[in-house]
Structures are given as C-alpha cells and as structure tokens.
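Checklist before submission:
- one chain only
- standard amino acids only
- sequence pasted in full

Submission:
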Amino acid sequence: MSRFLKIAMTAVAALSMSACVDNTNTNKPANTNANVTNTNANTTAAKAAPTIDTLMAQEKAANEAYTKGDGQFFQGFLSDKFMSNDMGKASSKAEVVKMISEVKCDVKSMNQSEGKLTKIDDDNYAVVYKSEADGTCKFNGKEEKIPSPMRSATVWTRGSGDKWQPIWHSETTIVDPKNAKPPASAPAAPAAKDDKMASNSNSNSNTSAAAPAADANVEAITAIEKSGWEAWKARDADKLGSLLANNATFVGLFGNYDENKAAVLQDWTGSKCEIKSTNVSDVHGTTVSPTFSYIMFKGSADGTCDGVKLTPVWGNSFYVKEGDTWKLAFGFESPA
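Returned file contents:
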C-alpha cells in the first residue's frame, strides 16, 4: 500500500461529509464503470443504478447540514449500518451524529471536482471526488482549518424503496508525489468479528469485555486481506490480480485514485520494495449483505519501497462475492 510520512489529520476531516461534487460538473458521469459488473449468483434481474447527479445532490445537502452542525439531518440521512474509520476508531452512526451536532464551521468557499461513480455491486456504489475548501470548523472547543485539497469517498447502499444511504465515508489529504516520494501501495488488511464493530485477535487493545459473536463473512475477507498483504510483500502481481474484483478501484495515501484494476495493480507493484514483514491490527468489520462486507484496520510493514521507509496506514476494504469467491472491489487509505 502507498505509504508516506505522517500527514496531520483531524477528527473534522475524518468524519465530515464535507466534500461533495459540484452539480455543475456532473453533466457527464466521470466514471460510472457501467460496462463492468460484479457477478452475483443471486441476482436475477438488473436493478436501476444511481446517477452521479442524484448522489452528489444528496452529498451537497449533507455538506450544508454538516457546516451548520445539524446532526438531526444525518439521523435520517445515514444508513443504520453506517460506520466511519476515525483515526482507527470505528465510529457508529450514533457517534457520528453526536459529533456533527457539536461542530460549528465558517466556510468561505468550497469547490468540488473530479467526481467518479463506480459500481461495487447492484446495491452498493462508491463515489470518489476532490474537494478544495477555505474555512474552519470548531470541534470540542478547538478551531481547525479545513484540510485542502482532499480526496473523499462515500460508499452508498440501496435501502428500502430504492433509497440510497451512506454506509461509510472517509477523506485523505491530496499530496503531490513530486514533493513527497511514495513508498508504493499494497492491498488492504484483515478484520474481525460481529456484524457491527468488531475487534479481532490482532488488535493491540486490551479489554475484559466478552468477545462478540464471530462473523463468518468478515473472517473470510480477513483471511483474504492477509494473503493480499503477503502477496504485496512478495511482489506477486498474479496473486494480487486474483484477489481483485473485475472493476476494482483504490484511493491511496497521496489521494491518488486508481480507477481500474490495471491501475490498482500498477500502483501496488510498480515500486522497488524490500519488505521483511507485514502486520495488521485494530481491525473492525461489518456485513452489509450476504454478498457485501467490509473491514477497517491498521496496516504496517517493516521495510522500504524506492528507498523510503514504510509507515502505517488506516485502511478500508470493501468486498463483494463474484460467484462463490470474495473479491476486493474498493479500497481507501489514510495515514496512521
């Protein structure tokens, strides 16, 4: 996975729904990947796909509500299965709504561009975009400048009555690779238990609470993640390719967006790396449907890529079933 020296991140950046694509830039969907589909053996008829215009209009409304600290808006806006990766902490819908209710922002200007809509499966789509903002937000009594520019992503799921709702959102600062040499990328990492927020045995945290019930889907994609990290370590492009969905996409630490499978593989294997070991910890996972699950985690490696020491990442990996096999459809990284 792409890694570079630590970039300052704030809770505001990690949890905000602040980056949304300007509707004036959506006359032609930048990347709907309409010609590529994930095979689902249980699907008998094609379902209507969302449009970039529709989802971005909702993101714009969410952005306006966020800057006003309107937590009540998000109570109905977010899916009940919403989960956010806040610097390694898995935050539930209730926690996010509470946080937003305490935020106060002063935004002078905001511009969104480079909107991309990619299909994960018939009922789940990822929206990736760039946001530039001039403003500040106050949280817990501390005022922070809104990071800019940012690469943001929201995963939307189809609810009852074909209502689309976010189940996950994150952001990472866009960095020019010319100014900070990237140490290459790799696939995501393993997860845990429970169908909401679960920690697996790799977690570094100590707890006396009873372990949640195992989630077979999360455990399955955890094992795949681990094999992906090992394949990245070995620079095994064939193995990595076998773990990716046909229309896989990926956002790396620099805010770079790999919008097809070939670009993802090039990102993950294009650097000269010497890696001794990899490790995954602080993992959380959730099952959205029998054919769609995702995990959040901390990934690290002992080694260098292109002469630069690798540093840890917060990773997010979204898996779909192609036939009977879990495949990575979308990945997103931010600095740990």
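Reviewer check: Residues 1-44, 188-211 have pLDDT under 50 and may be disordered.
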